[in-house]
Amino acid sequence: MEQKIPDTFSSQAKDFLQLCLATVPEQRWTAEDLQSHPFVANLELDSDN
User: Which of 26, 35, 39, 45 is a plausible cystine mate for 16, CB 3.0–4.6 Å?
Assistant: First the structure.
């Protein structure tokens, strides 16, 4: 079953969440896989925090 994600989320955010929430284990990405997803890989982190 596909999760309903708000339309206000970016397409990358929606894709990332769908991969996190996949109910079929074989379709669900691992934490290591998710680190390479563009939604996470393109984040700019504030070094002061």
Answer: 39
